[in-house]
Structures are given as C-alpha cells and as structure tokens.
Amino acid sequence: MQDIVIGARPLAAADVVAVARHGARVRIHPDALAAVAETRALVDALADDDRPHYGISTGFGALATTAIAPADRTRLQQSLIRSHAASSGTPVEDEVVRALMLLRLRTLATGRTGVRPIVVETYAALLNAAIHPVIGEYGSLGCSGDLAPLSHVALALMGEGEVRVDGVVQPAAEALAAAGIVPVVLAEKEGLALVNGTDGMLGMLCLALADLDRLLDTADLAAAMSVEGLLGTDSPFAADLQALRPHAGQAASAARIHGLLAGSPIVASHAGPEDTRVQDAYSLRCAPQVHGTARDTAEHAARVAAVELVSAIDNPVVTLDGRIVSNGNFHGAPVAAVLDFLAIVVADVASMSERRTDRFLDPARSHGLPPFLAAEPGVDSGLMIAQYTQAGIVSELKRLAVPASVDSIPSSAMQEDHVSMGWGAARKLRRAIDGLEQVLAIEAMTAARGIELRAAAPGERTGAAIAAIRERVPGAGPDRFLAPDIAGVRALVASGALLAASRIHELDPRLAPATADAHGRSDR
Predict the structure, then answer these.
(1) Which of 72, 135, 293, 368 is the most exposed place for a label (fewest CB within 10 A)?
(2) Where are the beta strands (DSSP E) in 222-322?
(3) Which residue in 54, 123, 282, 388 is the catalytic one?
(4) pLDDT at residue 67 above 80?
(5) CA–CA separation, 400 vs 432, rounded Å?
(6) Dihedral sign, CA of 283, 286, 287, 290?
(7) Is 54 one of the catalytic residues?
(8) CATH architecture of the domain covering 205-269+278-315+342-407+420-511
(9) Rounded Cα gap, residues 294 and 254, in angstroms
(10) What is the pTM of this model?
(11) Looking at domain 4-197, which of 1.10.275.10, 1.10.510.10, 2.30.29.30, 1.10.3720.10 is its CATH number?
(12) pLDDT (tens digit, 9 = 90+) per residue, 409-459?
C-alpha cells in the first residue's frame, strides 16, 4: 500500500479510510514542513510581544483575559492538554483514533496553526507506529473542536496517558520509548493547535460514507432479491419511469434493481394478464425512492466532507498574510448536520428492509410460501425470530435518527454558549450503520430462502448472490441454531463478497436504455 503524502495534494476521504482501516503510512511533504517552519517563526515573534495573544500569552476559553508570564507558558500548554484529556466511557475504536490523528496531522501540516516542524513529525511518527491513544466515548461537544478526544492524542505526544498498541493498553511513555519516539515538550500555541479541530467527527463521517457506499448497494441487492422472491414485478424500475422524477440517487438504485432482475425466470413466470395484481406494496415498488434518497443524502455529505478535508481549522489561526486571528471555524455545525441527515436515511432504508422481510414470513402476503418459511410450520418456527431481531434493530435506529445537532449545552462559563454536538452525532451514526448492516443481512438471508422455495429459478445475478450465501449458510430445512446463519450472511455483507457475487457494480445507471422526459418524450 502506498504512503499517504500529506501536503502533496488535498487529502481525500479514501485516504482517511486507507490510513484508518488499512494501516497506510503517512509522510509529510518537504514543502509542507517548510511552510510549518515559516509560520512558526511568526508565533515566536509574538511570544515576547507586550500585547496579549490568545493561546500564546493568555489562558484559554473563559480564561482568555488572563496573562501568562513567559516562564509559565510551557506549563500552560501542558496544563491545557492534561486538563482537557477528560474523556469518559467505553474507548472508541482504533480506526476512529487513526482517522482523527490523520486529520489533525493534515491541519498541522497546512502551516496555518503555528506549531513547530518537530510536532508535525512526531505526530506522524506516532500514527505510523500504530500507537493509538485511549479515548473515551464521551467528552466532545463538537465545538472548539473535538477537545477531549484530541487532547488524549496530544497527551500521548507528550509521553503521558494511556495508549493501545496491537490492542494492548499500556503507558504512552513505554510505547513511545519502544518505538524510538521522543516525547514533545509543547511550546507556545501548540497545545491549542493540537486540540482545536473537528477531526473526530470528520473522520467518522469519512468512514461512514465508505460503509454506506457498500450498504446502499447491498440494500438494492436485497430489495431485488425480495422483489423476485415475493413474485413482484420489475416494471416500476424502468428508466423511463424514473426519468419522470429525475433524482440521481433514485435513478441509480432503480437501474441496479432493474439490472439485477434482468432475465429472471421467476419474474417472467408471473408476468402477463394471468397476474391479477395491479401493483406491488410500497416496500417493493418504492425501494428506489427510499434508497435513492439515502444515496443523494450521502452525496451531499460527501461534498461537505470534501470541503472539510481542504480546510485549516484552528483557533487562533495564522492567516496567509501572517496575522494570528481568532475565529469560529472550529464549530462543527456543517459536519454535525450531515451526520444527522445520514442517521435519518439509514433508519429509513433499514425500516423498508424489515418490511420486505416480514412479507416473506406472512402466508397472507407471501404468495404461496409456507409460514415463516418453515420446513414444517408448527413444529418449526423458520425465520420468525430473525424478523424480531430486525424489528428490534430498526426500533433502535429510529431512536438514533433523532438529531444530535439540534441540541446545545453551554460550556466554559458561557464563553462557548452554542455547540454542535457533532461528535455525538458521529457516534450514533456508527451504531446506526452497524444496525443497518445486520438488517440487510437478515433480509438477504430471508429472500434467499424464499426464492429457493419457488418453482422457478432466480436471475443470474441474484442466483449468484444466493450461491455465495449457501457457501456460508445452509438452505431451508428443520430449525437449527439461527444466530450463526445471521452472522455468516452479515460477514458476506461486511466484506463486500455478496455484492461481488452479484456483480452489481457493472450496473451503471449511465448505461441504462433511453429514458423519457416529464412529458413522455424519448431522449432518442
């Protein structure tokens, strides 16, 4: 895997995933280090100025009017980090810590924060050594940056606090010594520069977008399998119908579902005048509209992330013309809002998935399938309780969809009197995405069994997905321990193997047939 060179080009969300999840190493471009050194000279010039400069010769937050003598300024920076490393609760995941570290390092390397090159280089060394500071889940209000989480990283940079190396918690001083890293003694401005960013919530947004890229395709695949297994029709997914309401995400999902069902003998088996049903239930017919809304929301969130990834967030910040100015760019509102938007659409996609699953299990709506898809209904319960599991998760996802960003609790003696709660929005989105993955796995597992109970064969792509499931999970039969089946299909969803089997990525909506406009005119 290639190194991520910070300062050579703008960082992309894919870079965040590469470092956070796949252990890619980072390097700092020489030009970036030169810019850092140049900016640091401006901070050093202000250190002896008689006028107060926030974070250089003053206290922090509500203590910004307190002057700090030169002899106490190193202690000031150390005190800031020690006091702000105040998180609590279950430690966050290593991938989140790595994403947070990478993004703070990127901002430090912009030359707009005023730190010394040694701070940037040591921070990179910490990340490359896979030394992950232990950060509790609670402590950030998403304003003035993710203060507590970033402070735990800065504490490790000082050789203090606890870190995880290969999953083992140990003192930071021991981990740094083992890696040959010399702890940093912070100078003026550096404590603030290390903690004043939205890096935690942005890192979790980048990871969530990568997950949703996979899961929204999985939702389309599961929906196609359910349409097939429930004897639905593929006609609502035609490109000309989608063009009458030309949302990009809707068109993409419809094209995928339509393509997955192409050539399906099951779909063909009940097409024609002998099928008296006029239209399918909403959970089948309207899948592109719901999945597409999630796609469009993710696209909007990706645009917000892209802006954040080229931003230099610190307070005060060193401007391009050399001024050191206080500002409000650390407020997490832009990121918090899209994190909440995503939690809402995740809940909606999962809710529709659960409704499709439930239709398979009810003989009044499954069009000829046995109750609960059981081998011997009454003796066997089949997949009855798998739907209970889905229902419990979906109920939780609805609670997680309540926005965090509408809340604000003042802090720092009312100096920080409006906060974004973006970190909390990111944490609940991670839980929501985990739930969506499980819900979609259960739908795919259920649809596979339902399709296999039909007389006709599935389509080529859905059949390949079922074959992949059967390599991991047995088919219908007497009741057995069901949790391992769910876990097995979930693993296929998580790895992307289920999508790969269906070759869904070949179904690019740009390759769809000619469409009609809102007046029914063809584009040909």
Answers:
(1) 368
(2) 317-318
(3) 54
(4) no
(5) 7
(6) negative
(7) yes
(8) Up-down Bundle (1.20)
(9) 13
(10) 0.93
(11) 1.10.275.10
(12) 888 777 787 888 899 999 999 999 999 999 999 999 999 999 999 989 999
